[in-house]
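Lay summary. Proteins are chains of building blocks that fold into shapes, and those shapes determine what they do. In this project we predict the shape from the chain. Here is one chain we studied, written as its sequence of building blocks.
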Amino acid sequence: MFLVGLGSAMTLAASMGQERHRFRDSERLKLVLKSVGASAMTFGVLSWIVIIGGALWANSSGDYNPALSVLLVPLVLFFGAVGLSGLSAIQSASFLGTDMTDMQVAQLERMLRYLKSAGLCMVVLGFISPLLPAGALIVAFIVASSAVSGGNLRGNQGALLWLLVILVEKDMPLADEVDALAESFSGSYRLRVKKLAEALHHGEPLSSALRRAPRLVPQHALIAADIGDKTGTLGPSLREAAERHGGRISGSGIGGNTSLGGLVLYWVVVFSLLLQIFAFLMYSIAPKFKKIFADFGLTLPQVTEWLFGAGSFTSYYYILGSLMLVPLVAVCVLAYAQFVGWEYIRTGWFGRFFLRLDTPTVLRSLAQTVALKQPLDFGVECVVDGHRRSVVRSRLNEVYYSIKSGNDCWDAMRRQRFITRQERSVLQSAQRAGNLAWALAELAETIERRLEYRLRQVVEALQPVAVFSIGLAVLFICLGFFMPIVKLIQSLA
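And here is the predicted shape, written in a compact code that computers can read:
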């Protein structure tokens, strides 16, 4: 319960920090953040002392089992993360009440988003931990709720995009109309639209104002707005982004495909429930079977011996607890991706293995650049400024400097593994023929369709494997517990 309370307080404090412009007295807000941060740091440090001190005491008394280290490592990491989140809350409070630069504002926003995510994770773990038998169902509910909330978020993004298209094309005042539209939304999205209207009232360009409110519009719309602002073609750029977003909502393209998420959810929920039922049978029913057969002087059937041998690992509950963290993390990532969209997932170093997922966005931005008769390095620079993934930005920086040095853009894109050798040849031919914009747009669509087709192939191939594997496991368990009954009846008869 303390974990739930601390997570709720941290989430509330982070939300208050994100809406700090509503508080006249920043000192109270700083006090709230510092109090929550001090509580989290104290909780993390005390938990470390209890865990490490208990392990040292058990080791000195000779009662320590080295295998328990498998459980202690994730616990130490978790409570360390709780302590670090408290430190981040205190650091966030130190930023408030001062004249912040744009870099400090961006850093503060990142820290507050981290605090909000950390608080939500603590609340979820606090609810799940005492309800482990129903944990899989709770996780399923979280993912389903995230999918519904994510659908509402993308619907709100589409409504806002089309309003911006109409306002820009009709040359109407953006700030007042956006402020009025905010009242039609609810929750945190309404507050972010209010923040957009406030930035527009202060005279900021639309692309810059959109960046101040995270997840207000899709990432490709941010890049399109940036190009439109810099070239004076904001209306057509936003219209193209709104039409593309509408296609993704309707299910076309990778962004609208949720079959992989359903497969992962199926695996996690069924596997978790099956493992919990199996552990209960091994702990409660299996010893009784062994005692009954020993009293009658009988031997267990071979299939039951195999089953009980496989079930002997249930005594290592600390290993099972650690293994269950893997599907839990997978489901949390899935739920977050379904809520905010896959394009907002920060892949870090692993992003270099998924560059092809970002290639269509890069190619469409370059197509827009070419259509506006702007140099290619301008389009690459706009993508670097607007893209969220650090790996993509760093690789596109290499492309940008290669173009500035007089090298061919498509050779540089090929070296950074955004396009293949065949695609490089196609784009070079299209550039010589003068239809590069069309070729870039078509190639982006082709890559997206190919990726979606391959994803569906993988899902279709894995679904029967998942069902067959679960069926075999259930058959094995049923035979293991049914055959002893048959043998006992035959022996007594």
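What the prediction tells us: Residues 254 and 284 are 46 Å apart (CA to CA).
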